[in-house]
Amino acid sequence: MFGKRLAELRNKLGISQYELAARMKLSRGQIANYEQGTREPDFNTLIALADFFGVSLDNLLGREWCSTEATNESAYITNLDGSKEELTEEEFEYLKGSLHLLRQYDIQMKKKVNHSAL
Predict the structure, then answer these.
(1) Segment (H or E) for 67
(2) What is d(CA 21, CA 16) in angstroms, rounded to the nearest whole number?
(3) Cys-Cys crosslink for 3: which of 35, 44, 63, 97, Cβ 3.0 to 4.6 Å?
(4) Are residues 8 and 55 in the same domain?
(5) What is the pTM assigned to this prediction?
(6) Residue 75 and residue 6: Cα distance in Å, rounded?
(7) Domain boundary among 60, 75, 104
(8) Virtual torsion, Cα 71, 87, 94, 99, nearest 10 deg
(9) Low-confidence winner among 35-39, 65-69, 104-108 (lowest mean pLDDT)
């Protein structure tokens, strides 16, 4: 799962394995091995990759801790044990606003990364 997620994040930024390797001070072969699942990075490399892409380690590793879904004008969060808990309207609106801010931040950070590569 990690390799697939790494490739997704790299492609989303529009950079090659060579570019990512250069920015991370790794070899292109290391990046290819990570993406193919033949090798796994150490903890420091995982943290550096998560920081580079602006994602959590769980996100980088392809782990989803919880999900939300809106059904019939109600919003629910799925807990780790699989149980569902209804959100209040205020909680749902807060989460939507937070997600919007996170996405805006992500866009700005990607622009900054792409601009600094020039």
Answers:
(1) strand 67-71
(2) 8
(3) 35
(4) yes
(5) 0.56
(6) 30
(7) 60
(8) -50
(9) 65-69
Rg (CA), the chain: 17
Distance in angstroms (rounded) separating the CA atoms of residues 99 and 94: 9
pLDDT digits (tens, 9 = 90+) for 9-41: 999 889 999 999 999 999 999 999 999 999 999
CA 67 and chain centroid, separation: 14
Structural domain that includes position 82: 67-117
DSSP letter, residue 56: -
d(CA 13, CA 114): 8
What's the CATH number where 20 sits?
1.10.260.40
Residues 6 and 55 in one domain: yes
Measure the CA angle with vertex 39, ends 47 and 35; round to 5°. 75
Q: Could you identify the residue written with the tokens 């606003």?
A: 97
* Number of structural domains in the chain: 2
